[in-house]
Amino acid sequence: MQIIMKAKYLIVTVALLALACSLASAGDPSPLQDFCVAVKDPASALFVNGKFCKDPKLVSANDFFFSGLNVPRNTSNPLGSNITIVNVDNLAGLNTLGISLARLDFAPYGLNPPHTHPRGTEFLIVLQGTLYAGFVTSNGDGNRLFTKILYPGDVIIFPIGLIHFQWNVGKTNAIAFAGFNSQNEGRIDIANAVFGSDPKINPDVLTKAFQVDKKLVEYLQKQLWFTNS
Ligand SMILES: *[C@@H]1O[C@H](CO)[C@@H](O)[C@H](O)[C@H]1NC(C)=O
Ligand SMILES: *[C@@H]1O[C@H](CO)[C@@H](O)[C@H](O)[C@H]1NC(C)=O
User: Fold this and answer.
1) Averaged pLDDT for residues 24-33
2) pLDDT digits (tens, 9 = 90+) for 148-189
3) Averaged over 102-116, what is the pLDDT?
4) Which residues of 106-126 are buried (b: 16+ CB within 10 A; e: fewer)?
5) Contact between 148 and 182 (Cβ < 8 Å)
6) Which of 1, 7, 94, 153 has its CB surrounded by the most CB atoms within 10 Å?
7) Mind listing the pLDDT tens digit for each residue in 125-154?
8) d(Cα 221, Cα 193) in Å, to the nearest integer?
9) Ligand 2 centre from 228 Cα, in Å?
10) How many CB atoms lie within 10 A of CB 20?
11) 172 CA to middle of ligand 1, Å?
């Protein structure tokens, strides 16, 4: 009797794990209708599928339109880079469609610092300039670093969740575009999250984690961690 019960629990557990894995490996949920233009005011909303959807009768071409990505962005900042993200927050028609994009501007030697996108795999295509780009695999895969020097027309992939970066190693401005398989890929800048969290992580935690002098941790925690996006 007990053995049968245990077997049942095992089957249920395995089934739940399989379900969790299939949910975890999925990207954004598939749309259940042609589109679901995100709307802030629930009074003019119809269906709920992630965000409220605008009444299709009120939807127009502008809900699927964004312009200005041809304009170079201002890179006079501590990182020398400026990321213009086009996702569901500024292109509401992307809601439920599972994609977004970005323009990346780099001053000479400008950096898009190590960061991750918790919800999206990224591809990046260089239009102008020369970028040194790469990502680091997870602990289980040995934290291997993969890098490439990218020239115009070159593409690199950053798998979902992995830490990656791009650095303009050329003497001219660089321009790249990126695509994500999420309407809201999210972004975690490693330095900002670790040393610039609000409130601060107890410095003893970081001192032990990084195996450095506590003064260095406190120094890093005092810095203004700029973000380029
Ligand atoms: C990016 O550039 C735009 C204008 O080109 C500017 O308004 C914005 O503040 C810049 N963002 C950053 C993070 O420097
Ligand atoms: C770019 O941003 C810097 C710093 O905010 C500012 O001083 C400068 O005037 C901006 N340049 C342009 C062309 O807007």
Assistant:
1) 68
2) 999 999 999 999 999 999 999 999 999 999 999 999 999 999
3) 98
4) bbeebbbbebbbebbbbebeb
5) no
6) 94
7) 999 999 999 999 999 999 999 999 999 999
8) 10
9) 14
10) 10
11) 19
Domains and CATH numbers, the chain: 79-186 (2.60.120.10), 189-229 (no CATH)
Structure confidence at residue 19 (pLDDT): 43
**Strands (E) located in the chain:** 45-49, 51-54, 81-86, 100-106, 111-116, 122-128, 131-136, 145-150, 155-158, 163-168, 174-180, 188-189
Whether 13 has a pLDDT exceeding 60, the answer reads no
Exposure string for 138-166, b = 16+ CB within 10 A, e = fewer: eeeeeeeeeeeebeeeeebebebbbbbbb
pLDDT of residue 11: 46
76 lines ligand 1 (CB under 6 A): no
Angstrom distance (rounded) from CA 38 to CA 45: 9
